[in-house]
Amino acid sequence: MFSNTEQYTSASKAFFESQLAALSALTSIAMHGTEKLVALNMAVAKASAADTAAATKDLLAAKDPQAFFSLATAYTTPNTEKVAAYGRQLTDIVSATKAEFSKVADAQVAEVQSKVSALVDDIAKSAPAGSENVMAMLKSSITNAHAGYEQMNSAAKQAVEATGAHVAAASDQLTQVVKKAAAK
């Protein structure tokens, strides 16, 4: 079907190079997101160790049970706020990483679709007479595949947004519950 082997080879090479560049970009984004996550966890671990040591020291110095429980309650509220803040920071990191992934993936899909369409058009120009139906079917298949990708991508974005909203709501509810419990 290909009258020009060079055309196919050139398209294959360009496609491979494009995929390699996209993989490199996605790997870089993943590593950057992982670095942010590790930095967040290290900061939380350091702060938690220091806070735990200070709280333990104060609790052990309490003179009576009432003072002990008063101090324990006083330490609970800031910890709840720290957990909620951690949840928000974690959500921000995941959201930013996901947005960068989507940006690269969308650009890659658009580029591949453009190159495949151009290749099919070039093939159609040099196709033998009578192959118009086959070429139309090939173009239709490419269009349908892209539409399927768009639909799947849209559903995935909605799922991620819904999950983020649920995590944020759960974090807020947890903060409110602990604050109410600490107030009692």
TrEMBL record:
Residues 14-109 form the Phasin domain. This is Phasin family protein. InterPro entries: Phasin, Phasin_subfam-1. It comes from Undibacterium arcticum.
